[in-house]
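lol forgot to send this yesterday, sorry. C-alpha cells for the thing we talked abt
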C-alpha cells in the first residue's frame, strides 16, 4: 500500500530545506512517526494551519524511501487559538515532549492517543493549565506500564495501605518503582526528608493519599480538584518521569523553574 491515512497529533517539527518540515506525529493507527511535510513553510501552503503544533488531523501519507510524505490533511480539532495562553502552551508542550521521548516509533498505543484527545478537549475548553502536569504524568506512566507502585512496597511487595512510615512520612523511590517499606529502607532514618543516594526521598502521607486519588480522576475532574493540590504533587510525579527519561526534560526544567 503506497498511500495510507491516519488520524494524529503534531507533536513537534523541525525545518527541512527552505520550505519543508519534518514533523513528529502521533496517530491512533501507527503511534509515533517522523514524516515530511513538503512546502508547509510557504506562505500559501496547501496545508494551511492543519499541521500546526498539537492540532489533530486526518493525514494522508505516501510511503517514501526513508520518511513517508504527507500528501493531504483535514482538520479534526484545532486548539491553536488557546495555545497563545502560556499555561496551555506549557501543558501541551510538556505532554508532547513526554510522548515523543517515551514512545518507540511505529508502535500504536490507543489509550495514549485517547489521553491526548482528552487533553486537547480540556485545552480547547479553556481549562488547560500547567497544574495538570501531575495528572498527565500519572496517566502517561500508567498507559505505558510504568506506573509507580503506590499501595505496596515496590521492593518486597509488603502491603502498606495508608500507614505512613513515621512522623507522617512515607518513603518513595523512583529507582525501586514506588513506595518503599521501613524494612527495605534499612538503616536510613524515616524522619530524614533529604534524598538518599539511591534516589529515595520522603513525602507526607497526606500527599501520597492525594496522589492515589488522582489516579482515578479524569483531566476534567483533576481541574475541578484544584490547582493548589495538583501543584503540590509536581515534584513527586516529575521524579518518576525524570527517572524513566534518564534526564530532566526541557519542559520539566521550565515547569520547575530551574532553567
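and heres what i got for the seq, position by position
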Amino acid at each position: 500500500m503506497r498511500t495510507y491515512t491516519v488520524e494524529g497529533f503534531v507533536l513537534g517539527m523541525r525545518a527541512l530545506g527552505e520550505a519543508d518540515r519534518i514533523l513528529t506525529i502521533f496517530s491512533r493507527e501507527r503511534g509515533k512517526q517522523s514524516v515530511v511535510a513538503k512546502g508547509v513553510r510557504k506562505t500559501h501552503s496547501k496545508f494551511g494551519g492543519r499541521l500546526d503544533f498539537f492540532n489533530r488531523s486526518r493525514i494522508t501519507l505516501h510511503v517514501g524511501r526513508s520518511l513517508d510524505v504527507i500528501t493531504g490533511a483535514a482538520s479534526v480539532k484545532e486548539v491553536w487559538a488557546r495555545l497563545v495562553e502560556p499555561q496551555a502552551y506549557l501543558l501541551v508542550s510538556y505532554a508532547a515532549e513526554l510522548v515523543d521521548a517515551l514512545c518507540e516509533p511505529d508502535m500504536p498505543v490507543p489509550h495514549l492517543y485517547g489521553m491526548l484527545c482528552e487533553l486537547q478537549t480540556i485545552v480547547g475548553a479553556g481549562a488547560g493549565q500547567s497544574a495538570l502536569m501531575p495528572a498527565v504524568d500519572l496517566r502517561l506512566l500508567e498507559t505505558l506500564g510504568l506506573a509507580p507502585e503506590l499501595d505496596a512496597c515496590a521492593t518486597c511487595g509488603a502491603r502498606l495501605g495508608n500507614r505512613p512510615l513515621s512522623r507522617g512520612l512515607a518513603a518513595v523511590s523512583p529507582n525501586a518503582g514506588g513506595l518503599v517499606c521501613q524494612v527495605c529502607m534499612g538503616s536510613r532514618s524515616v524522619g530524614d526528608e533529604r534524598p538518599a543516594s539511591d534516589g529515595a526521598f520522603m513525602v507526607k502521607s497526606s500527599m501520597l493519599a492525594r496522589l492515589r486519588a488522582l489516579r482515578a480522576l479524569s483531566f476534567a475532574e483533576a481541574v475541578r480538584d484544584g490547582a493548589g493540590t495538583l501543584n503540590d504533587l509536581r515534584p513527586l510525579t516529575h521524579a518518576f518521569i525524570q527517572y524513566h527519561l534518564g534526564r530532566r526534560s526541557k519542559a520539566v526544567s521550565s515547569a520547575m523553574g530551574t532553567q
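The helical segments are 86-102, 110-124, 133-143, 182-185, 205-214, 219-225, 227-245, 250-255. anyway ping me if u want another try
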